[in-house]
């Protein structure tokens, strides 16, 4: 495995293999040229902002699965760091984002072990290269082949210890299997041992497949409803199947504000007492706490679109459990920083934590 020092030397050439794309592997809006760098201030003090939900892709790795970044999309052209790194940084500057934690949405969960190993090695080395080239602007989550949990544990350890990656990005399900399935315990055990953040992003083929016929029609419902639903289901299983009890030191961050779960967590508390036969064991089945109390054991991005939505998340899980999420370069929002600055009933210290303080600590970002 190439060392971190070698990556610092090789990073320029390696950047040709990184593409900055949206959740569906299509490019989003191009950056404005020469955008001035916005300095985010809280009570007159400059604060560092960190975006934990930012996507990219490695075209060469996609090709191993006979996939590619689609051309002919109505969206603007692909943002490729090899030729347009300055454009992405310019957009970050304009939005007031100092650093991004890059992640790649899993598309390789059907790959056999050898192919999965090739894909992950290529992707993680490319991610390490871009972080080495821009250490003050990017960190990254390792990709892992979670369909092979023992391999995923090895890849996470290699990514963190050998490549300097800051955790792992995983899907909300794996080929229809829940993340709470005991087969994934080796991965969770390794993540807990390493003390790194695991970023959970919904799979487009996850919960959507359960109700795909009902998500047809106008409104982009397979994403708008399907993605938060996938996350809601994933987190609920991690709670109710006891995964968070078995691995209590896990650091999990859920995309899109945790889906629908934080908005309706109270109902989770009444399910087992109302229907005890559905929860064999004690009052709440195998788990040790009231279900809603596990919400404050996890972290969430703030991609909920309104200041009131962020205020509600703060009320549910605490401000120190929230971090900026833009879904860059997917064009959902260009105002993620303003969303936090405008959130009511939040003190300055909590605002600073949401903007970047919590992410800086969790991702091991140094000054």
Q: Can you walk me through this structure?
A:
- By secondary structure, the chain is of the alpha/beta class.
- It has helices spanning 4-14, 59-64, 81-95, 113-133, 149-161, 185-194, 221-224, 226-240, 243-246, 265-274, 307-317, 336-341, 348-362; strands at 19-20, 41-42, 45-46, 50-55, 79-80, 99-103, 138-140, 142-143, 167-171, 197-201, 251-254, 299-301, 322-323.
- The strands form four sheets. The protein has a six-stranded parallel beta sheet with strand order 8-9-10-11-12-13.
- Helix 1 (4-14) packs across helix 4 (113-133) and helix 5 packs parallel to helix 6.
- The longest helix has 21 residues, at 113-133.
- The protein starts with a helix and ends in a 5-residue tail after the last helix.
- Residues 24-33 and 72-83 have low confidence and may be disordered.
Question: Layout of SSEs?
Answer:
Elements: H1 4-14, E1 19-20, E2 41-42, E3 45-46, E4 50-55, H2 59-64, E5 79-80, H3 81-95, E6 99-103, H4 113-133, E7 138-140, E8 142-143, H5 149-161, E9 167-171, H6 185-194, E10 197-201, H7 221-224, H8 226-240, H9 243-246, E11 251-254, H10 265-274, E12 299-301, H11 307-317, E13 322-323, H12 336-341, H13 348-362
Parallel strand pairs: 4-6, 6-7, 8-9, 9-10, 10-11, 11-12, 12-13
Antiparallel strand pairs: 1-5, 2-3
Helix pairs in contact: 1-4, 5-6
